[in-house]
Amino acid sequence: MPAALKSRAGLGDTIRQFSTPKTIRKTAFIPAKAEDNSPTPERMAKGDFEWQGKKRVKLNTVNALHMAGDIDGSAVTAAKWWICDYVFANHGYLDILNDVLPSDYVKGDVHTFAISRGNAAERIGMIRDRLGLCAHVRLEMMLARELSFSAMAEALVPAKGTQGRKVVSAQCALVLEQLCDAYTQVRREIRDRIERNKALVLGPSG
Protein backbone atom coordinates (compact mmCIF):
# COMPACT_ATOMS: atom_id res chain seq x y z
CA MET A 1 0.00 0.00 0.00
CA PRO A 2 1.59 3.31 -1.03
CA ALA A 3 2.33 5.79 1.72
CA ALA A 4 0.21 8.90 1.98
CA LEU A 5 1.71 11.93 0.33
CA LYS A 6 2.94 14.44 2.87
CA SER A 7 4.40 17.00 0.51
CA ARG A 8 2.64 20.43 0.36
CA ALA A 9 4.41 21.38 -2.82
CA GLY A 10 2.14 23.32 -5.13
CA LEU A 11 -0.50 23.94 -2.44
CA GLY A 12 0.22 27.66 -2.29
CA ASP A 13 -0.28 28.05 -6.01
CA THR A 14 -3.59 26.24 -5.78
CA ILE A 15 -4.82 28.49 -2.93
CA ARG A 16 -3.82 31.63 -4.80
CA GLN A 17 -5.62 30.38 -7.89
CA PHE A 18 -8.93 29.95 -6.08
CA SER A 19 -8.68 33.05 -3.88
CA THR A 20 -7.77 35.52 -6.61
CA PRO A 21 -10.91 37.03 -8.20
CA LYS A 22 -11.15 36.48 -11.89
CA THR A 23 -11.63 39.32 -14.30
CA ILE A 24 -15.04 39.00 -15.93
CA ARG A 25 -15.47 40.46 -19.33
CA LYS A 26 -18.80 42.23 -19.59
CA THR A 27 -20.54 42.38 -22.92
CA ALA A 28 -22.62 45.46 -23.57
CA PHE A 29 -26.27 44.72 -24.28
CA ILE A 30 -27.40 46.46 -27.43
CA PRO A 31 -31.17 46.24 -28.01
CA ALA A 32 -32.30 45.42 -31.47
CA LYS A 33 -33.46 48.42 -33.45
CA ALA A 34 -36.76 48.31 -35.22
CA GLU A 35 -36.44 48.93 -38.90
CA ASP A 36 -39.65 50.94 -39.01
CA ASN A 37 -41.13 52.45 -35.86
CA SER A 38 -43.74 54.53 -37.66
CA PRO A 39 -47.50 54.05 -37.13
CA THR A 40 -49.22 51.29 -39.03
CA PRO A 41 -51.30 52.15 -42.10
CA GLU A 42 -54.46 51.49 -40.06
CA ARG A 43 -53.30 53.92 -37.36
CA MET A 44 -52.36 56.51 -39.98
CA ALA A 45 -55.82 56.30 -41.50
CA LYS A 46 -57.59 57.33 -38.30
CA GLY A 47 -59.00 60.82 -38.06
CA ASP A 48 -57.27 61.83 -34.83
CA PHE A 49 -53.94 62.26 -36.66
CA GLU A 50 -52.95 65.10 -38.93
CA TRP A 51 -50.04 66.05 -41.17
CA GLN A 52 -47.63 68.70 -39.92
CA GLY A 53 -45.19 69.16 -42.75
CA LYS A 54 -43.78 65.71 -43.42
CA LYS A 55 -44.78 64.35 -40.01
CA ARG A 56 -48.03 62.61 -39.18
CA VAL A 57 -48.79 63.49 -35.55
CA LYS A 58 -51.67 63.24 -33.11
CA LEU A 59 -53.04 66.64 -32.22
CA ASN A 60 -54.63 67.91 -29.04
CA THR A 61 -57.15 70.29 -30.52
CA VAL A 62 -57.89 72.07 -27.23
CA ASN A 63 -54.20 72.69 -26.60
CA ALA A 64 -53.76 73.86 -30.20
CA LEU A 65 -56.54 76.44 -29.76
CA HIS A 66 -55.08 77.56 -26.45
CA MET A 67 -51.55 77.94 -27.83
CA ALA A 68 -52.94 79.94 -30.76
CA GLY A 69 -54.70 82.31 -28.36
CA ASP A 70 -58.16 81.40 -29.63
CA ILE A 71 -59.36 80.28 -26.18
CA ASP A 72 -58.30 81.13 -22.62
CA GLY A 73 -57.51 78.96 -19.63
CA SER A 74 -61.08 78.90 -18.36
CA ALA A 75 -62.21 77.32 -21.64
CA VAL A 76 -59.50 74.66 -21.30
CA THR A 77 -60.71 73.92 -17.76
CA ALA A 78 -64.31 73.69 -18.96
CA ALA A 79 -63.24 71.22 -21.64
CA LYS A 80 -61.68 69.02 -18.94
CA TRP A 81 -64.88 69.21 -16.87
CA TRP A 82 -66.96 68.21 -19.88
CA ILE A 83 -64.89 65.20 -20.92
CA CYS A 84 -64.75 63.94 -17.31
CA ASP A 85 -68.53 64.18 -17.03
CA TYR A 86 -69.02 62.64 -20.48
CA VAL A 87 -66.74 59.65 -19.89
CA PHE A 88 -68.16 59.03 -16.41
CA ALA A 89 -71.76 59.27 -17.61
CA ASN A 90 -71.28 57.06 -20.68
CA HIS A 91 -68.61 54.60 -19.58
CA GLY A 92 -68.77 54.62 -15.78
CA TYR A 93 -65.18 55.46 -14.89
CA LEU A 94 -63.39 58.58 -13.77
CA ASP A 95 -59.67 59.13 -13.20
CA ILE A 96 -59.18 62.65 -11.83
CA LEU A 97 -57.98 61.88 -8.30
CA ASN A 98 -54.86 64.03 -7.86
CA ASP A 99 -54.84 64.88 -4.14
CA VAL A 100 -54.44 62.65 -1.12
CA LEU A 101 -57.77 61.73 0.44
CA PRO A 102 -58.51 63.29 3.86
CA SER A 103 -58.33 61.08 6.95
CA ASP A 104 -62.12 61.30 7.50
CA TYR A 105 -62.93 60.30 3.90
CA VAL A 106 -65.90 57.95 3.72
CA LYS A 107 -65.78 55.51 0.83
CA GLY A 108 -68.90 55.44 -1.29
CA ASP A 109 -70.91 52.44 -2.35
CA VAL A 110 -72.85 51.30 -5.38
CA HIS A 111 -75.65 53.76 -4.59
CA THR A 112 -73.46 56.87 -4.28
CA PHE A 113 -71.62 55.76 -7.45
CA ALA A 114 -74.89 55.55 -9.37
CA ILE A 115 -76.01 58.95 -8.05
CA SER A 116 -72.70 60.57 -9.03
CA ARG A 117 -72.88 59.03 -12.49
CA GLY A 118 -76.44 60.26 -12.87
CA ASN A 119 -75.39 63.77 -11.83
CA ALA A 120 -72.66 63.75 -14.49
CA ALA A 121 -75.16 62.64 -17.12
CA GLU A 122 -77.55 65.37 -16.01
CA ARG A 123 -74.87 68.05 -16.40
CA ILE A 124 -74.02 66.80 -19.90
CA GLY A 125 -77.70 66.84 -20.84
CA MET A 126 -78.29 70.34 -19.44
CA ILE A 127 -75.28 71.70 -21.32
CA ARG A 128 -76.46 70.03 -24.52
CA ASP A 129 -79.88 71.65 -24.10
CA ARG A 130 -78.29 75.02 -23.34
CA LEU A 131 -75.72 75.09 -26.16
CA GLY A 132 -77.63 73.06 -28.73
CA LEU A 133 -77.11 69.75 -30.52
CA CYS A 134 -74.60 71.19 -33.01
CA ALA A 135 -72.32 72.29 -30.18
CA HIS A 136 -72.72 68.91 -28.47
CA VAL A 137 -71.69 67.07 -31.65
CA ARG A 138 -68.56 69.22 -31.96
CA LEU A 139 -67.66 68.60 -28.33
CA GLU A 140 -68.03 64.86 -28.86
CA MET A 141 -65.86 64.89 -31.96
CA MET A 142 -63.23 67.17 -30.47
CA LEU A 143 -63.00 65.85 -26.88
CA ALA A 144 -64.46 62.33 -26.80
CA ARG A 145 -63.34 61.05 -30.21
CA GLU A 146 -60.26 63.32 -30.31
CA LEU A 147 -60.57 64.01 -34.03
CA SER A 148 -58.33 66.51 -35.77
CA PHE A 149 -59.81 69.67 -37.24
CA SER A 150 -59.25 68.29 -40.74
CA ALA A 151 -61.16 65.10 -39.95
CA MET A 152 -63.98 67.12 -38.39
CA ALA A 153 -64.10 69.36 -41.45
CA GLU A 154 -64.47 66.37 -43.75
CA ALA A 155 -67.49 65.23 -41.76
CA LEU A 156 -69.11 68.58 -40.99
CA VAL A 157 -68.27 70.95 -43.85
CA PRO A 158 -66.99 68.86 -46.78
CA ALA A 159 -68.02 71.55 -49.28
CA LYS A 160 -65.55 74.04 -47.77
CA GLY A 161 -62.56 72.13 -49.09
CA THR A 162 -59.22 73.35 -47.77
CA GLN A 163 -60.93 76.13 -45.81
CA GLY A 164 -62.95 73.61 -43.82
CA ARG A 165 -60.25 73.19 -41.18
CA LYS A 166 -60.28 76.93 -40.36
CA VAL A 167 -64.08 76.98 -40.25
CA VAL A 168 -64.26 74.06 -37.82
CA SER A 169 -61.42 75.45 -35.72
CA ALA A 170 -63.31 78.72 -35.28
CA GLN A 171 -66.52 76.85 -34.44
CA CYS A 172 -64.78 74.75 -31.79
CA ALA A 173 -63.15 77.79 -30.21
CA LEU A 174 -66.56 79.46 -29.94
CA VAL A 175 -68.16 76.34 -28.43
CA LEU A 176 -65.41 76.03 -25.82
CA GLU A 177 -65.74 79.68 -24.81
CA GLN A 178 -69.50 79.19 -24.42
CA LEU A 179 -68.93 75.95 -22.49
CA CYS A 180 -67.29 77.75 -19.58
CA ASP A 181 -70.29 80.03 -19.04
CA ALA A 182 -72.69 77.11 -19.57
CA TYR A 183 -71.06 75.12 -16.77
CA THR A 184 -71.34 78.10 -14.43
CA GLN A 185 -75.04 78.49 -15.17
CA VAL A 186 -75.77 74.75 -14.96
CA ARG A 187 -74.08 74.43 -11.58
CA ARG A 188 -75.94 77.46 -10.27
CA GLU A 189 -79.23 76.02 -11.50
CA ILE A 190 -78.54 72.65 -9.85
CA ARG A 191 -77.47 74.32 -6.59
CA ASP A 192 -80.60 76.49 -6.49
CA ARG A 193 -82.79 73.45 -7.12
CA ILE A 194 -81.12 71.55 -4.28
CA GLU A 195 -81.70 74.48 -1.93
CA ARG A 196 -85.38 74.70 -2.94
CA ASN A 197 -85.89 70.99 -2.39
CA LYS A 198 -84.16 71.19 0.98
CA ALA A 199 -86.43 74.05 2.00
CA LEU A 200 -89.51 72.05 1.01
CA VAL A 201 -88.38 69.05 3.07
CA LEU A 202 -87.41 71.01 6.16
CA GLY A 203 -90.29 73.45 5.97
CA PRO A 204 -90.27 77.06 7.20
CA SER A 205 -87.90 77.62 10.10
CA GLY A 206 -88.97 79.27 13.38
Order of helices and strands: HHEEHHHHHH
Computed over alpha carbons, the radius of gyration is 33 Å
Q: Uncertain runs with pLDDT below 50, 5 residues or more? A: none
Shape label: flat
Which structural class best describes the helix and strand composition?
mainly alpha
Please work out how many helical segments DSSP would assign. 8
- Total beta strands: 2
The span between the termini is 120 Å
Could you give a short account of the major beta sheet?
2 strands, antiparallel
Strand order of the largest sheet: 1-2
Strand content: under 5%
Tell me the helix content: 55-70%
Task: Calculate the mean pLDDT score and round it.
Answer: 79
Outline the structure in words.
This protein has 206 residues and is mainly α. The chain is flat. Helix 5 packs across helix 6. 58% of the residues lie in helices and 4% in strands.
Summary?
Helices cover 58% and strands 4% of the residues. With 206 residues, the chain is mostly helical. It has a two-stranded antiparallel sheet.
Write the layout of secondary structure elements.
Blueprint: H1 11-19, H2 41-44, E1 49-52, E2 55-58, H3 61-67, H4 73-91, H5 110-131, H6 133-144, H7 149-156, H8 164-202
Antiparallel strand pairs: 1-2
Helix pairs in contact: 4-5, 4-8, 5-6, 5-8, 6-8, 7-8
Question: What features would you highlight for this structure?
Answer:
206 residues; mainly alpha; flat; 4% strand
